[in-house]
Amino acid sequence: MNEAVAYREMIQGASDAIASRVAEVPADKLHARPGDGLNPVGWNYWHALRVWDLDLNWLIKGQDTAEDAWHRGNFSEKSGYNPDGIGLRGTGIGLGYSDEEVDALNVISADVLKEYHEMLLAETMAYLDGADDAEIRREFPGLAGRGDTSVAVRLQHLVTHTWGHIGELSYAKGMLGMTDGTYPGQS
Amino acid sequence: MDEAAVYLQQIRTMSDFLVKQIDEVPADKFHERPGPHLNTVGWNVFHLLRIWDLDLNWIARGQSPQEDAWHRGGFSEKAAYEPLGKGGRELGLGFGYTDADVDELAMPADVLKEYHQMLLGETAGYLESADAAELHREIEREGQQTETPAARIQHTIGHCWNHIGEMRYAKGMLGMSDPSYPGR
Question: Interface pTM (ipTM) of the complex?
Answer without folding.
Answer: 0.92
